[in-house]
Design brief:
The protein has about 575 residues and is an alpha+beta fold. The chain has 2 domains: about 140 residues, Glutaredoxin (3-Layer(aba) Sandwich); about 325 residues, no CATH class. Helix content is about 30%, strand content about 25%. The protein contains 15 helices and 28 strands. The strands form 10 sheets. A 7-stranded mixed beta sheet has the order 8-7-11-12-24-23-20. Strands 2-1-5-6 form a 4-stranded mixed beta sheet, covered by helices on one side. The chain has a 3-stranded antiparallel beta sheet with strand order 16-17-18, with no helix packed on it. Helix 7 links the parallel strand 7 and strand 8. It is globular and about 110 Å long. It starts with 6 loop residues before the first helix and ends with a helix.
Length: about 575
């Protein structure tokens, strides 16, 4: 006789089996780490370079993120993106990466909050003052959108929100999310690195001063040892001779030559040449013409003539020539000029200033991939020339509507009223920045006396080790705006008319130096892009009640509907079996 199970017994058995299956899946899932990044940009997937860096962490790194508490939607998104990134990093190194989120404004005591704010500023974090809107009312709040990374007692500040403005917007937040992985990866490397590469800014030939390149100097100092050096015709200014070694050993890994305006003595050029032959990297940022805006302040025009720096032969030997011309480009920065009086007042208007090209990167090379347009000022175009064994890569070019005026060039403010004939005379896509890679031949080969080249203390080298150089036909590409009276400087790429950083000069130069020093892992991280999918702030306020009801009532209605369907099919099944 077969015993028939009651419906209640069958339901209980199904429930027990279901719970057992769920428990088994959860148990197995505790040992497996299965994740799927379904975003188009792979925003939750770390780059291979970051994986490698995390796997090589020698000890525990502690991260304190000061982005918590009551925050507006954009900063909440930045906070959540930071947490997601750190969680993903912890999957690679769960034992050597620890983090916590802290609200610096959580204390109800005003004096305690002020002391916390002061301490965070001493630690290197910058605050932002934001206006929060809640049910139609506004309130001010101080936030510190940054983190402190600590390793073996050494602490490095990380500014998560990259802005010159105190009040962030959605686009600035999205740019900051773009750079999160780079910021943390570079800070981890900075805090754990024992030996840093050495970079020197050259002095003594009218190059830009310390304050004029301060922004890039500070940015590079986060990863490298940065100093300034003068050659003064000393053969040991950039290198030294080691006994028993055939050639000289460089004291620096890279050299930056930023806008020289006077001639280089032959001995200085020789020292730079041998620095390159011994594997040194050089970033040449050179003005071929002596044009500047200062001469236009008193007169309506000026004449630009070539700068006699003596570097033409050296650069030609390496495979590039900076032409003696000035490029005018329809894609350019603005200038403000006074026009005809309006009543009793002079009228200030904004015009396109064709002498300041704004270059939109077209190359897919990692140095310029995913960076903002680069702003040049009175720039010259480049020609690549034959140099055996040297690979030339064009990094930046002018726009399709551009032309070059040969020396001497008459620079006039009237150009804003009479636009150049781009439609008839354009020379599109002129090279403006070039990367040179390979084993270079000395620019002084067959030019030096035998008794000098055979001197063992000189250790002259005709053919160099494999290295790389970057040449830009503009020295102002690295110069940040300064306020000499106050001794302050602005972020490189800052536009005074937009009152914001809108140009990618800073990123271009940092990427270039990363590449020259073989830090391509940092470039691969920086080149990631995350698309901004911004919500409509007006609809957020106007439709707030509707979406609150939908988010609370719809799940309940959906659950009730599923319950009704379940009961319907259960009764139907019971009717068939009875």
């Amino acid at each position: 006789m077969i015993m028939k199970r009651s419906p209640r017994t069958s339901d209980l058995l199904e429930l027990v089996m279901g719970l057992a299956i769920v428990g088994l899946v959860l148990f197995i899932g505790g040992f497996l780490r299965l994740r799927a990044d379904l975003t188009n940009e792979k925003r939750f997937t770390l780059t291979p370079a970051t994986h490698t860096m995390l796997e090589e962490l020698p000890d525990v790194v502690y991260v304190k993120v000061y982005l918590s508490g009551a925050l507006p939607a954009d900063l909440q998104r930045l906070s959540q993106s930071t947490k997601d990134l750190l969680d993903e990093m912890r999957i690679t190194q769960p034992e050597k990466l620890q983090y916590t989120f802290i609200d610096p404004s959580e204390s109800p005591d005003e004096q305690t909050r002020k002391e916390t704010y002061d301490q965070l500023q001493k630690d290197g974090l910058q605050y932002s003052s934001i206006r929060m809107r809640d049910k139609g009312a506004f309130s001010e709040r101080i936030v510190f959108p940054g983190a402190l990374v600590t390793y073996r007692g050494k602490t490095v500040p990380v500014q998560l929100l990259k802005t010159q403005l105190r009040t962030p917007d959605a686009d600035i937040v999205n740019r900051s999310i773009n750079n999160l992985e780079y910021e943390f990866a570079s800070s981890f490397r900075q805090v754990t690195s024992m030996n840093k590469a050495k970079i020197a800014f050259l002095e003594g030939h009218g190059e830009l001063g310390e304050l004029e390149v301060m922004d890039v100097t500070n940015a590079l100092s986060e990863l490298y040892d940065v100093t300034r050096v003068r050659i003064d015709e000393r053969i040991d200014a950039l290198s030294h001779k080691v006994e028993g070694v055939a050639y000289r050993v460089n004291d620096f890994d890279a050299l930056i030559i930023a806008k020289p305006d006077s001639a280089f003595p032959d001995r200085d050029r020789y020292v730079i040449d041998q620095f390159i032959m011994n594997g040194g990297k050089v970033m040449w940022l050179v003005d071929a013409m002596n044009a500047n805006l200062d001469s236009l302040r008193k007169n309506q025009f000026s004449i630009a003539v070539p700068n006699n720096t003596g570097l033409d032969d050296v650069l030609f030997a390496y495979g590039v020539r900076i032409n003696k011309d000035l490029v005018l480009d329809r894609s350019c920065a603005p200038i403000e000029l006074y026009t005809q009086p309006y009543g009793n007042q002079r009228k200030l208007e904004r015009f396109p200033w064709y002498w300041e090209p704004v270059l939109i990167p077209e190359s897919t090379h990692p140095i310029v991939s995913n960076i903002d347009p680069v702003h040049l000022r009175f720039a010259s175009n480049l020609d690549t020339v034959g140099a055996e064994g040297i690979t030339k890569t064009i990094l930046l070019t002018s726009s399709p509507a551009s032309l070059a005026q040969r020396s001497p060039v008459r620079i006039s403010l009237n150009v804003v009223e009479m636009a150049p004939p781009f439609d008839r005379q354009s020379t599109p896509y002129m090279p403006m920045a070039v990367l040179l890679e390979g084993s270079f031949t000395s620019a002084f080969i067959d030019l030096l006396p035998p008794n000098f080249t055979k001197d063992p203390t000189v250790a002259y080298r005709e053919h160099g080790k494999r290295t790389s150089q970057i040449v830009v036909g503009d020295g102002d590409v690295i110069g940040n705006r300064i306020d000499a009276s106050k001794g302050m400087y602005y972020t490189l790429g800052f536009d005074r008319y937009a009152n914001a950083k809108i140009y990618g000069n800073r990123e271009f130069l940092i990427n270039a130096m990363n590449y020259l020093l073989d830090d391509q892992s940092l470039i691969s991280i920086r080149s990631r892009a995350i698309t901004l999918r911004q919500l409509d702030p007006e609809r957020i306020v106007d439709d707030r009640a509707w979406w609150q009801v939908m988010n609370t009532a719809l799940p309940v209605l959906f659950a009730v509907l599923l319950g009704m369907l379940y009961q319907y099919f259960r009764r139907r099944k019971a009717t068939r079996t009875s």
